[in-house]
Write a structure and sequence with these properties.
alpha/beta; 8-stranded mixed β-sheet; 5-stranded parallel β-sheet; 15% strand; globular; binds flavin-adenine dinucleotide; binds NADP nicotinamide-adenine-dinucleotide phosphate
Length: 582
């Protein structure tokens, strides 16, 4: 037990010690999994490291945190009643509202009594004889379960670079992904922000309003598109809700799992004048859909150059100091790293007390008692914000000792990069599942839809196993290998694989470079999952089943059996590399 856990442990260890399923994490994935498990009549326990539900939205309380997929779509779609009763206040809801929504879901579906908070799972070990998992926590719990479901999140393990002299800094150091619950008042302080990814670009404009001086340490300039966030009127909500089922259905057929109008025509075939007009219109709509201006933007470098030139001109038009504007202009592929969506980010650099420091050629040398030193120059600071991101996709798995068949640990198996069939399960680890694991669309789709699809698939899978008396399920190694190869092959087609980003793990020193999410498009992936299920869990090995690998009765996955949106993702469009992705 860690000292931390010992001090906060105020409860008895679990009295009940055997469950059908244990779920790790109570973000949207863990909550929805629990809801489905309960619906199936399975006994289940969720362990959550935080003190409340909501995952990402529980931890990331930094100023300006909000979603970048419109709230009407960045929400659960499994319950029409929930869709109708919840009212989003803004196009992109702020973190406190998304957290309230998560709490509402927990209460509405009576989830809390099955969740144990303030408890981190430290180990999960497969018992080959009993065909069940033994799960240990940092509070001393030891429970067993037939199924162990990792709902640990793709962006939940904060990356805290080990800067020299860190401990010697006299002021507070914050990480955006572990923000203090009571908030932080930067009024009158000299603040340093390290990083210029999504978390930084959301928080910088707000911190700048409070701080007496703000210094931003930028290693890579970021592409960002205005959100044009706005309040949602009662009239808008009424109309949108009337069309909610249709919107949800359209979203499921889209490569990103959320709906926005986009153009499959190639940028390279348009005239410069038409392109300019198209980009202006898309910029005026703002947000992630800007990338849907043309179909070839993430496939053809020459096409990408046209949107990059347009966006650079926008930055130069906003930022008054030419040297700062040049520093803020990225030189990598537009949308290669996750595209940012901002409110007043570039404008912030016109404020006289905001300074941009380039750390691309000379990295941050060290922290001193009074601030940060770069290239021999000291920047005096009272507080430092690390907006340095996450050990994405696999970071939270790495922190749990997961031991499968023959003593193999998941960390060992994934040493050269994660390997999982459909991003759902990994050979050698029977009855262990992951929600939005590596090799699934996950972070390249609207995450809540990606989560729902995985959970629904798992619910049908577990229900089937019970029906046929199966005791274990795991991927066949050859099918897993083929899927991993396919995930790699498709990623090579996209320009996204060309730069350094958390998608490929290179934001963390020493990690292997592997493109982790599946970039072939959400509906293509869903179709594959449906086929696997129709084929009686093709590519999986089931043990103990009376009628092994027969086609299951489909219940929850029914709503994912949608035809591909042929306008957007026709085989011809795919072959011509004209499927826009966000
Ligand atoms: P999480 O929300 O990360 O929840 C995982 C939970 O597991 C956490 O609460 C964690 O404490 C717990 N956990 C992990 N390990 C353990 C352990 N060993 N023991 C116990 N508990 C554990 N996606 C979008 O699609 N649209 C957006 O607009 C969007 N905005 C985002 C904004 C921010 C700031 C961030 C960081 C991410 C954003 N994302 C967005 C991605 C976001 O992570 C997902 O949308 C979604 O919230 C993930 O839900 P989850 O339940 O899978 O994971
Ligand atoms: P991120 O995108 O990984 O950005 C981290 C930033 O820190 C990058 O600018 C990185 O520079 C910099 N950095 C890391 N280590 C550094 C070091 N040692 N020295 C200097 N700079 C360093 O992380 P994030 O901003 O937290 O976002 C992660 C993801 O979460 C997003 O991509 C998105 O999917 C999600 N998110 C979404 C929203 C939203 O709008 N809804 C908001 C926040 C997060 P390099 O680029 O050079 O590595």
């Amino acid at each position: 037990m860690t000292a931390d856990a010992a001090t906060r442990q105020q409860r008895q260890t679990e009295a009940e010690t055997d469950f059908d399923a244990v779920v790790v994490g109570a973000g949207f994935a863990g909550m929805y999994m629990l809801h489905r498990l309960r619906g199936l009549g399975f006994s289940a326990r969720v362990f959550e490291a935080g003190s409340g539900v909501g995952g990402t939205w529980y931890w990331n309380r930094y100023p300006g945190a909000r979603c970048d997929v419109e709230s009407m779509q960045y929400s659960f779609s499994f319950s029409e009643e929930l869709d109708q009763e919840w009212n989003w206040s803004e196009k992109y809801a702020p973190q406190p509202e998304i957290l309230s929504y998560a709490n509402h879901v927990a209460d509405r579906f009576d989830l809390r009594r099955h969740i144990v908070f303030d408890t981190r799972v430290t180990a999960a070990t497969f018992d080959e004889a009993a065909k069940c998992w033994s799960i240990e926590t940092d509070c001393g719990d030891r429970v067993s379960a037939r199924f162990c479901i990792m709902a640990v999140g793709c962006l939940s393990a904060p990356n805290r670079p080990n800067f020299r002299g860190l401990e010697g800094f006299r002021g507070p150091i914050y990480h955006t992904g572990e923000w203090p619950h009571q908030g932080v008042d930067f009024t009158g302080l000299r603040v340093g922000v390290i990083g210029t990814g999504s978390s930084a670009i959301q928080s910088i404009p707000i911190i700048a309003r409070e701080a007496s001086a703000l210094t931003v340490f930028q290693r890579t300039a970021t592409w960002s598109v205005p959100a044009w966030n706005e309040r949602l009127t009662p009239e808008y909500l009424q109309t949108a809700k009337a069309g909610y089922p249709a919107l949800r259905a359209k979203a499921r057929a889209r490569p990103t799992g959320f709906y926005f109008p986009f153009n499959t025509e190639p940028a390279l075939e348009a005239s410069p004048e038409d392109r300019e007009m198209q980009y202006e219109e898309a910029w005026a709509r703002g947000g992630l859909p800007f990338l849907g201006a043309y179909g070839d933007l993430l496939f053809e470098k020459a096409a990408n150059d046209t949107i990059a030139d347009f966006a650079r001109a926008k930055i130069r038009g906003i930022v008054k100091d030419p040297a700062t504007a040049e520093l803020l202009c990225p030189d990598n592929v537009f949308g290669c790293k996750r595209l940012c969506v901002d409110t007043g980010y570039f404008e912030t650099y016109n404020m006289p007390h905001v300074k941009l420091v380039d750390v691309s050629r000379t990295p941050i040398e060290r922290f001193t008692a009074d601030g940060i030193e770069v290239d021999g120059v000291g920047y005096p600071l009272d507080a430092i914000v690390c907006a340095t991101g996450f050990a994405a996709m696999t970071g939270s798995f790495d922190k749990i000792r997961i031991t499968g068949r023959n003593g193999l640990t998941l960390s060992e198996k994934w040493r050269a990069g994660p390997r999982a069939y459909l991003g759902i399960a990994s050979a050698g680890f029977p009855n262990l599942f992951m929600i939005t694991g590596p090799g699934s669309p996950s972070v390249l789709a609207s995450m809540i839809q990606a989560i729902e699809q995985h959970v629904d698939w798992l619910a049908d899978c577990l229900g089937y196993m019970r029906d046929v008396g199966a005791t274990s399920i795991e991927p066949a190694l050859k099918d897993e290998d083929a899927w991993v190869e396919h995930v790699n092959d498709v990623s090579a087609v996209s320009l996204r694989s060309t730069c350094s980003s958390w998608y490929v793990g290179t934001n963390i020193p020493g990690r292997p470079r592997v493109f982790m999410p599946y970039i072939g498009g959400f509906p293509v992936y869903v179709q594959k999952c449906n086929e696997v299920m129709n084929g009686g869990f093709e590519g999986f090995v089931l043990e103990g089943a009376q009628d092994s690998n027969a086609a299951p009765a489909v219940r929850y996955t029914e709503r994912w059996r949608v035809p591909l949106d042929i306008d957007v993702i026709s085989p011809a469009a795919v072959a011509a590399r004209r499927v826009p992705m966000v």
